[in-house]
Design a protein that fits this description.
0% strand, Arc Repressor Mutant, subunit A, 8 helices, 188 residues, mainly alpha
Length: 188
């Protein structure tokens, strides 16, 4: 059985990736934060007494279910209510980009020229835009396999589908990303 420390360490290790994954799905940072927080609370409340080795799979499944619940609530809310703010143009006040932040920490900024930094940021933005443009199931499979570093069986269990479906979704996502990036003049 996991200790509180193990649960806390696990949650700290997955929070940023879970947030980014949620943002890709719901395309709303505030909603993504709520989904991740709800997922973490459910894991701690209902499964905190499980062995620590089970946390990754449980959390991925909970996160997927919380995301689906959010979409269901949105569908119901949109069917019942129409907010005038939905028709306003979106403002980009929060320009937080985890990919740029992560890449900047890994690379040595002191030796990188402004041109290289600008080009790297442009490439990362383009990759992120293309990932966001993927169909939802392809995006989910791609992010779990290559962002979360889960194997095919874990991804299939988390998505509630067969391993063959995961392979198909990932293959199509990689092909679509490769084609889109090559069209933009970027070599994946």
């Amino acid at each position: 059985m996991a200790t509180e420390r193990e649960l806390s360490d696990f949650l700290k290790s997955v929070e940023k990736r879970a947030f980014k994954r949620s943002v890709y799905h719901v395309r709303d940072e505030e909603a993504a934060l709520d989904i991740v927080q709800e997922s973490m609370m459910k894991l701690a409340e209902h499964y905190g007494d499980k062995p620590a080795a089970e946390f990754p799979m449980l959390f991925q499944r909970i996160l997927s279910n919380c995301t689906l619940d959010w979409f269901r609530r949105q569908k119901t809310r949109n069917a019942l209510f129409s907010n005038l703010s939905d028709f306003e143009s979106a403002s980009d006040d929060g320009d937080f980009d985890l990919l740029e932040t992560y890449a900047a920490l890994e690379g040595s900024q002191q030796s990188e020229s402004a041109e290289d930094a600008s080009r790297r940021a442009e490439v990362l933005r383009e990759i992120e835009a293309q990932v966001k443009a993927l169909p939802p199931r392809q995006r989910e499979a791609f992010l779990m396999r290559y962002w979360e570093d889960m194997d095919v069986a874990e991804t299939a269990a988390a998505m509630g589908c067969s391993e063959g479906s995961v392979k198909t979704h990932c293959s199509r996502a990689v092909q679509a990303l490769s084609k889109a990036l090559k069209a933009k003049g970027l070599q994946p």
